[in-house]
Amino acid sequence: MLNLDLEDAADRKQVNKILKAWFANRVLETKEREDEHRNKRPFVVPGSWNDGTDSATVAPFPAPAPISSAEKDALKTRGFADADIFDMAPQRARAILENPNRTATSERFRVIGPTSAQCLICQRADGEVRLIKDVTRPGTRPEPLHPGCAPEWFKDDDEAPG
């Protein structure tokens, strides 16, 4: 799993780059087929990348260098666990390390927008409450929280406090 969030512009750009390379390399291609209403539409299907053609005609897509030990150590100082780093794409790791404000907490919680509601943890409505979503849990809805209260609400157990 790539652990990418399609709501994040940088992750979406990376997915588009990967898909573009897969189409160029014929790992994926489109075929016209009928949908459930018998209308002809293009569908993404496995490509013919391994059909014995000359590999020189295939568009290059060099693999990035793996995350180095120094990069792993730097990510750990920002709160990332070994399991987080293991699943992390090298490009994402490097993008995180380029910005000193990006930490495990800032990567886990996505601020969706402001809200006038009170924080579910501290019960204050001081203008700093935001709608925050835990991107590590697909399907969770944004909750009104202070950024500092988000870790308490989205604990690793199955039940949110309340």
Structure in words:
The chain has helices at 9-24, 69-77, 82-86, 90-98, 104-108, 150-153; strands at residues 28-34, 40-46, 109-114, 130-134, 143-145. The protein has 6 helices and 5 strands. The chain is an alpha+beta fold and 162 residues long. The strands form 2 sheets. The protein has a 3-stranded antiparallel sheet with strand order 3-4-5. A two-stranded antiparallel sheet has the order 1-2. Among the domains are: 9-57, no CATH class; 108-162, no CATH class. The model has no long low-confidence stretch (mean pLDDT 83). Helix content is 30%, strand content 17%. Strand 4 and strand 5 form a beta hairpin.
Protein topology:
Layout: H1 9-24, E1 28-34, E2 40-46, H2 69-77, H3 82-86, H4 90-98, H5 104-108, E3 109-114, E4 130-134, E5 143-145, H6 150-153
Antiparallel strand pairs: 1-2, 3-4, 4-5
Discrete helix count: 6
Percent helix range:
25-40%
Secondary-structure element sequence? HEEHHHHEEEH
Terminal-residue CA separation: 32 Å
List the main descriptive attributes of the protein structure presented here.
6 helices, three-stranded antiparallel β-sheet, two-stranded antiparallel ribbon, alpha+beta, flat, 162 residues, 17% strand
Summarize the structure.
The chain is an alpha+beta fold and 162 residues long.
